[in-house]
Design brief:
mainly alpha, 0% strand, MamQ_LemA, transmembrane
């Protein structure tokens, strides 16, 4: 009788170990399936985000093209004005300053340079000289 109880306990222990292994294997498969579904869900989310961003990209490209068109038109107009000024200066070589001033719209061009100042004194924002 003692031997039969030992064999029965061993069989029950083996069955319990096998049952735990099957449950652990099943849980591992469920975990892997969930990881697989999560990975593909993340891919779908990224694809939707990209799809949602395409209209923004198209609108940005259109705005950039409009800006470039305006820049090109401004450059062409400036070049045409410069060429008109050149032809006016070539037609009247004795009065270049008057031709230049009519194009600039001011009485002098010296003060138009960036950083030019009429005052020789230092300003509070100027850098000290190095010694």
């Amino acid at each position: 009788m003692g031997l039969a109880i030992g064999v029965l306990v061993a069989i029950v222990a083996v069955v319990i170990v096998l049952l735990v292994m099957v449950i652990a294997g099943y849980n591992g498969l469920v975990r892997a399936r969930n990881a697989y579904k999560n990975a593909f869900a993340q891919i779908d989310v990224q694809m939707r985000r990209r799809f949602d961003l395409i209209p923004n990209l198209v609108e940005t490209a259109r705005a950039y093209m409009a800006h470039e068109r305006q820049t090109l038109e401004a450059v062409v107009n400036a070049r045409n004005m410069a060429m008109a000024g050149l032809s006016a200066a070539q037609a009247n070589p004795g009065i270049p300053l008057r031709c230049n001033n009519s194009r600039l719209g001011s009485s002098g061009s010296t003060a138009r340079w960036a950083g030019s100042s009429r005052s020789p004194k230092a300003t509070p924002t100027s850098r000290p000289t190095r010694r």
